[in-house]
Amino acid sequence: MSMSKRQRSAPLRALSAFLAFFIIFGFGFGAFALSSYADTSSEKKYVALTFDDGPHPGRTREILALLKEYDVKATFFVIGVNVEQWSDIVEEEIRDGHEVGNHTYSHKHLKQSKGEELKNDLIKTDKLITDKFGYRMRLFRPPEGVINDSVKRVAAEMNYQMVLWNVDTRDWANTKASKIISTVRQNTKSKDVILFHDYIVGESHTLEALETLIPWFIEEGYCFVTVSELMKL
After folding, report:
1. Any catalytic annotation for residue 107?
2. Of 16, 19, 134, 161, which sees the most CB atoms within 10 A?
3. Structural contact between residues 54 and 89, judged by C-beta atoms closer than 8 angstroms
4. Known catalytic residue at 205
């Protein structure tokens, strides 16, 4: 797929602070990326692009092609039922050096979910990825960002780091590209985690927005990292 490298520039909001924080929950377990602040002591700025709900047979491949064009590494939080249908796309994600995280098997809402049900759901997806690719997922993003004591306990038992986000593009709501672009430009700081989706029911403008945002991030001096890499900074 041929993509044009359109260049755009715009001022980025700068905040003075020190390092990215973790928000600590019970059981001594933290969910990463609810509080991160720009580190203005360093010239380098970092951002983690994340994609939920895939893989999708068309949209994920288009996004992967764009990321490869710019040599961008991202983190994909996959749903097990979709992995079963399009495992070759997950294989491509891993081969291209992207990070893959667990987004449950069936995207059940976890507010009322029992601990054992969630655990079995995560194990099912984990087994799919491990058996097919020998890849061990370390990150878990709860559907819709729902976290309660049961979710925290299961994540801790399975040695998963829960990951949320700082910037919600709302692409899942069929948001227009111009609005996604505006949201990201106005709200992103260094060491932020940005939430996109590579599987959306209905119209998706994610790829269109990324075609503008990736060159803009590069112009603004950002380095693209996976979530696990971001945690180490």
Report:
1. no
2. 161
3. yes
4. no
